Amino acid sequence: MAPSSVTVTSRFHESITRNALRSYLAEFISTFFYVFLVVASQMSSRKLMPDASLNPTSVVVVAIANAFALSSVLYIAWDISGGHVNPAVTFAMAVGGHVSVPTALFYWVAQLIASVMACLVLRAFLVGMHVPTYAIAEEMTGFGASVLEGLLTFVLVYTVYAARDPRRGPLSSIGTLSVGLIAGACVLAAGPFSGGSMNPACAFGSAAIAGSFRNQAVYWVGPLIGATVAGLLYDNVLFRSHPTDSTRGEGIGGV
């Protein structure tokens, strides 16, 4: 058997071990909680403020929900799956060699299913309310919105890499809180323009349940490119990469 075939086979077997399956379950649970809380906050703001698009308070509500929810779910999943909770983060980790391609694909499946399930639960129990989708402001083009989402995701993923770097010491609640805070800041900065998704799973889940995939590419292309650039820049330009555990997406000897 050729060496490349052996490598592919071993990578696949690593992706279906007990620890790997625990990681996928952790990603599912954490992504479900995150999407549920973020989308529910959008629905809550619309319930209290029918004309939420003209009320700046609605952006603050969603930003706070993003910050709190992301900080919490990262803290929950960090030691099990690496706390990706975002296909863009997983994609950057795969490109950078921190996780294998099969593992990344399983992460994506877990994240996307969790997002759809979270939005489905909201639609089932919040009768009479529509699941909101991410939308682009009239003054923005699809390309401009994609670039904006890419920049926001760059900031988010760069913060994720910095927070998980073992050279900064053991992970504490400050690390996950910093990621949540930067996510909240990004929503405040771009919410009225592109929605401030930064998470393809969140955009996909709400669009799937709402039945509208308009401008969906904006929330995939921009974030995936932004996340990849952030990861490669952190690993190869500013800092040198550490050996990684391919089933968790983190440095060996890290948190």
From TrEMBL:
InterPro entries: Aquaporin-like (IPR023271), Aquaporin_transptr (IPR034294), MIP (IPR000425), MIP_CS (IPR022357). PROSITE patterns: MIP (PS00221). It is a multi-pass membrane protein. Keywords: Membrane, Repeat, Transmembrane, Transmembrane helix, Transport. It is found in: Membrane. Gene3D superfamilies: Glycerol uptake facilitator protein. The keyword Ribosomal protein does not apply. The chain crosses the membrane at residues 20-39, 59-78, 143-162, 174-197, 217-234. Pfam families: MIP (PF00230). Its main location: membrane. One of its GO terms (cellular component) is membrane. Belongs to the MIP/aquaporin (TC 1.A.8) family. TIP (TC 1.A.8.10) subfamily. This is Aquaporin TIP5-1.
